[in-house]
Write a structure and sequence with these properties.
Number of strands of chain B: 14
Largest sheet of chain A: 5 strands, parallel
Order of helices and strands of chain A: HHHEHEEEHEHEEH
Largest interface: A-B, 50 and 52 residues
Strand content of chain A: 15-25%
Oligomer: heterodimer
Shape of chain A: globular
Distance between the termini of chain B: 24 Å
């Protein structure tokens, strides 16, 4: 264990330089982020992830945000265990009918000011699952969405760009 | 693989159920195809697979679950999705259907009664504390100890099998690839094998090797990520930090080689969608060197950290008799003595030409499941080396033409968590008439309920992660 720890200290960091905020994401956000909320949040955001019906591909890439390469926490972004602690809901998947109520309740349990980020192709429009009897629709069909991050699944860099845009 | 399907009468159906209950056959799958029900059976002594069909009378079929409990959830699903009734089944509750699909009110779910002194219940989910999929766990505890766990799943049911009906092969392959994102390669692989079995397609040799390459990369990435995540659930973050880096390196090599970090839609019916990129082999060679250098030290770290072993050894024990009864695949089965691996039995190209071991343990605890994964990482590294060395030249896809008549195909392939079964029927135009996908999780989830009994509630995340069942793959 000592050798592993020591090597971590002596080798350069793996962490990627921070990506520029995504232009399209910035534009989409401009209206929903106001100065007051920014002052109140102090450039730190607590994120609660909600899988509303995804295939779990998006979750894998969201997990990757915490590895040494992306190191999400250096931007003041961190995942929390309860919607009551959250500023941001990071929602994946088409919203299944069986998850609709849980998503609504999670949204209602999140104190304002709050933002909803819809992650992935399915969250944007249902993706390949659109039109199923078991799918309620896109995330925006169930709760208000402030930002979409496209991709199937979005790569961690795409997620990072979108989330950093939330801070600007 | 060519599998004959036989339409049987009630007597023969009941005889098959008796074979299952007597442990002479293993249940591979049970699914609806209204107005019929199909059952796939495996004879583990010969590796033979058979599919039996019972044509329902008045919408009913003789219950399999009444005699053989691994079929209970499958039967409840058949009732939910196809309205076919398992006659004689004890559990009349719905499973995937929560009552809201067709505009109805949510049904109140009756958990099984638990009686005794000093018991309390802890409801958990569907939205959990971590970044994981949704499901509900109802714990009954006495103080810190779990007396009983009951699962309630179906939250991420997306109606995949219904979306498959009438879909082109292209669309259906995309749906299959999104059945469980962590096993996207394995699902594409199994789906393609089933289509090729139905249409009698010979896949070019280079494509078979590239398929095994992406499948082993997926297995590596998942095992590395999960070994760390299991340790993290025992509060040993160092291992998690280290294996997360190795997992990321796998995904980057996958991106450089096949243009997608999770290698989605790379395997298609007929072969692979595109050849490996020019820089891919170099990226994979660098990855292998890095893993060969780093991973042994992490094994040593796991083996020498007593405080970590204190959490994993003798925690969450799965009994070998349950694993045999349920035909449980993957590391859950192999950690409790069941040496089944679909790459061996029934086997598929190119694994017959490659050398690998199927590691087996018999302790059945969290520690044994970690060790199976460690050994499988080593096997995957060796397999990737063999594949790269022997990669044949030539085309990477065969033409996929409809047969001009309805055809059926079945395939069983090994995902990182266990065997995936795909059975499908194509119509004369080559569209999907019916496609059933059975995740390994169907025969693992019920054993998690047994594994947690007598453990403290706080060890549930550890036990759960050591199973890492798929919610999406199960809920469909």
């Amino acid at each position: 264990m000592r050798r592993t720890l020591f090597e971590n200290l002596t080798h350069g960091p793996l962490t990627e330089p921070p990506p520029a905020p995504d232009e399209a994401a910035l534009k989409e956000l401009a209206e929903s982020v106001n100065r007051a909320a920014k002052a109140r949040l102090g450039r730190s955001l607590s994120i609660r992830q909600v899988d509303a019906g995804s295939c779990n591909g998006c979750e894998l890439e969201i997990h990757a945000l915490s590895n040494a390469f992306y190191d999400l926490e250096r931007f003041g972004l961190h995942f929390v265990a309860s919607p009551r602690h959250a500023d941001v809901l990071l929602v994946t998947g088409p919203v299944t009918k069986n998850m609709r109520e849980a998503l609504e309740r999670t949204y209602n349990a999140t104190p304002g000011p709050k933002w909803v980020v819809a992650v992935g192709a399915c969250a944007a429009d249902g993706g390949v699952f659109a039109g199923s009897y078991a799918v309620a629709g896109a995330v925006k069909d169930v709760i208000p969405v402030d930002l979409h991050i496209p991709g199937c699944p979005p790569a961690p860099m795409d997620l990072l760009r979108g989330l950093i845009a939330l801070l600007h | 693989m060519t599998v004959t399907r036989s339409i049987v009468n009630e007597q023969a159906w009941r005889e098959a159920v008796a074979q299952l209950a007597g442990g002479r056959m293993t249940l591979l799958g049970l699914w609806g195809d209204a107005p019929s029900v199909h059952m796939a059976l495996l004879d583990e002594s010969t590796g033979g697979i058979a599919v039996l069909t019972y044509e329902c009378v008045d919408g009913k079929f003789p219950s399999v679950g009444a005699k053989h409990s691994p079929a209970i959830r499958l039967e409840r699903t058949i009732r939910d999705l196809y309205g076919l009734e398992p006659a004689g089944a004890e559990d009349a509750r719905s499973w995937l259907d929560h009552g809201v699909w067709h505009g109805g009110e949510k049904v109140s779910y009756q958990f099984l009664p638990v009686e005794g002194d000093g018991l309390h219940q802890i409801p958990v989910g569907p939205v959990h504390a971590g970044i994981i999929e949704p499901g509900h766990f109802r714990f009954t505890a006495n103080g810190e100890f779990t007396v009983r766990l009951e699962q309630r799943l179906g939250y991420v049911h997306k109606g995949i099998e219904s979306l498959m009906v009438g879909a082109s092969l292209d669309k259906a392959a995309k749906l299959a690839a999104r059945t469980s994102g962590d096993s996207t390669v394995a699902y594409s692989y199994t789906f393609a094998l089933a289509v090729e079995a139905a249409l009698n397609i010979e896949v070019p040799a280079r494509a078979t090797y590239l398929r095994a390459l992406v499948a082993e990369l997926e297995r590596l990435a998942n095992h590395l990520g999960d070994i760390g995540a299991i340790c993290n659930d025992a509060a040993f973050a160092l291992m998690h930090a280290q294996t997360s880096v190795l997992r990321e390196r796998c995904l980057r090599a996958a991106l450089a080689s096949f243009g997608h970090r999770l290698m989605m839609d790379v395997i298609v019916p007929g072969g692979v969608a595109h050849d490996i990129a020019l820089e891919g082999l170099a990226a994979i060679s660098t990855l292998l060197t890095e893993l060969r250098r780093r991973f042994p030290r992490l094994i040593e770290l796991y083996d020498n950290t007593a405080s970590l072993q204190d959490r994993t050894v003798s925690t969450g024990v799965v009994k070998p008799e349950y694993v045999r009864q349920f035909g449980t695949g993957g590391y859950v089965g192999r950690a409790s003595g069941r040496a089944f691996d679909a790459r061996r039995t029934p086997g598929y190209a190119p694994y017959g030409k490659l050398t690998f071991d199927v590691p087996v343990r018999d302790q059945g605890d969290v520690d044994a499941r970690v060790w199976i994964r460690i050994r499988e990482v080593e096997q995957s590294l060796s397999l990737i080396e063999q594949i790269v060395d022997a990669l044949p030249d030539g085309p990477v896809a065969a033409e996929v033409k409809s047969a001009g008549e309805p055809r059926e195909g079945l395939a069983l392939a090994e995902a990182f968590r266990g065997d995936v079964l795909v059975w499908l029927r194509l119509d004369a135009d080559g569209h999907v008439a019916r496609c059933h996908l059975r995740d390994a999780s169907w025969f693992q989830w019920p054993l998690l309920e047994t594994a947690i009994e007598g453990n403290i509630v706080a060890d549930f995340p550890l036990c759960n992660k050591s199973f890492n069942c798929s919610y999406s793959g199960h809920d469909l």
